[in-house]
Amino acid sequence: MSLYHEAASVLVTARSKSISLKSIIYNKKDWKSDPKTLFALTTEAAKWSEVLSEVLEKSGVLKIERQLTPILALVLTHDLFLSKKGIALPASHGLTTSISKHKARLSAELTKARLRRGLATLEQLRASINEQASNGLAADGENGSESSRVRYPRWIRINTLKTTLEEQLGSTFAEYEQVPTLSKVTSSSSSGKRLHVDENIPNLIAVPASIDLTTSKAYKQGHLILQDKASCFPAYLLDAQQGGGDVFDACAAPGNKTTHLAAILQADSANTEAISEHGKSKVLACEKDATRSLTLQKMIKLAGGESVIHVKAKQDFMKLDPTAKEFAGVTALLLDPSCSGSGIVGRDEGGVIVHLPNAAAAPDAAQAKAGKKRKRGGSAAKPQSPPQALAVEEIVIEEEAPPTTTEDTEAKLQTRLANLSSFQLRLLERAMAFPAAKKITYSTCSVHPEENEHVVVKALQSPIATERGWRIMRRSEQVAGMRGWQTRGWADATKSAVDGNAAGRVGVEEVAEGCIRCEKGSADGTMGFFVAGLVRDVGEVRMDGHDANGASKAIHGAEEEEWGGFEDET
């Protein structure tokens, strides 16, 4: 099995390129291992690296098993002691024996490491490490002091396709204390099982980040979906209603937003019997990549959305014809395209901190004995290494070849953002060309205005928007939870993108107020995120693709375009 070699490779790549583990794993398509398993192992190994490196150093295993690299030994030792199923290899496999034959020695050092930290049990050590991991990011993205750290909650969307909030509060979370504010979940004084029911997004709760629900029955049955609060904004803002037409998720994988759309439609169907002329409303989910299409289908099946969601696997949204008959009933579209991912927690924090064991730090028994003989013989002993030489080596992940100047860094970033925003604009213009479309939500997990306000303004100034009558969804028109969100778009960024010829048609203040932002590192407990709604009033739509106002089916600036990178799991 290649899991451990691939996990070591991921950590090496993170070390050299200063990017998140998630990006490394999910942007590559040809892993032999399951990506989720690979992500879980590398994340946990990095989290435990300080303790495990200490254990490996003091045991001297790396002096004996010279074929093991420090990173490979780290991931194997993690699974030997901390994985419920142990090392995921046969007992006779070479990698298994290279670590397991030293289990007694490693176990003794793990116990010593725990006792040095004043912890009575392994579970207490696990809780301490989880707490450190969840509290370890400062507001400026660096490892900070206790007073400066920002604590992020673990957001959980109750999947109403299968269950209800009330059912889960009475079962999975029956032993949890329900608290009135998010700060009581994320504050340094909070401990134990607490939860907060979110006031903006229905059926969303927050628990301390140290709590792992992935082993719970409810999670395994698809009743709980781990989804950042900000990631819930696009589907909720779209406010699709049963009987109001079909909904198109143009960039669907891995499927969190897709199943959220389906859950919203199902909830609405419980309150209305309205059926559109095209039949019961459904969600169309498009994903061009074959591997990600499989992930999407598995997610939908687990969430129980097969009856509502129709997957268009291995199909590129940019190559679809908006005027095709099969899309005649599409009245709403959700666009969450490839972006820089600069808003993702951990993306710009300079990489993860990985502690690696120093293979030469702990002397073996022969060296120790020789040293004692020299001392008894009265010969001059060689100077001893200072104590810190035996300490665990802390490696902060940084760029392999950092730019030599700030200007160079800025130039590369601007080039990347220009390429991304060009694609994002074309995607948005393509969505505007669907004849019956009345609402679009456009979102990114980026903090850069080039991908956010600038794209929205340029889209509103485009020929297709003018022809079809697209405008910003005003704050007053937004669903209550989004209308009440206080962090809005950046007015300066909006103003800078407005073409002088369109200044009268694109109201800067109205557009900025209509856009919604989430700030990474704020007390709201979200990642950095942007979402905007676009709307138009549509009369009767003719099957030739013209609406009642005579707008043609021409697609301006929406030529086919390929894009292959920077996709993020949000």
UniProtKB/TrEMBL annotation:
Domain of life where this protein originates: Eukaryota
Native organism: Oleoguttula mirabilis
Active site positions: 445 (nucleophile)
Keyword terms: Methyltransferase, RNA-binding, S-adenosyl-L-methionine, Transferase
Keyword S-adenosyl-L-methionine appears in the UniProt entry: yes
Protein name listed in UniProt: SAM-dependent MTase RsmB/NOP-type domain-containing protein
UniProt xrefs under Gene3D superfamilies: Sun protein, domain 3 (3.30.70.1170), Vaccinia Virus protein VP39 (3.40.50.150)
Positions of region (Disordered): 364-389
Sample GO molecular function, one term: RNA binding
Residues annotated as binding S-adenosyl-L-methionine: 251-257, 287, 316, 336
PROSITE patterns: SAM_MT_RSMB_NOP
GO CC, one annotated term: nucleolus
Family assignment from sequence similarity: Belongs to the class I-like SAM-binding methyltransferase superfamily. RsmB/NOP family.
Residue span, SAM-dependent MTase RsmB/NOP-type domain: 144-537
GO biological process, one term: rRNA base methylation
Record PANTHER family: 28S RRNA (CYTOSINE-C(5))-METHYLTRANSFERASE (PTHR22807:SF4), NOP2 YEAST -RELATED NOL1/NOP2/FMU SUN DOMAIN-CONTAINING (PTHR22807)
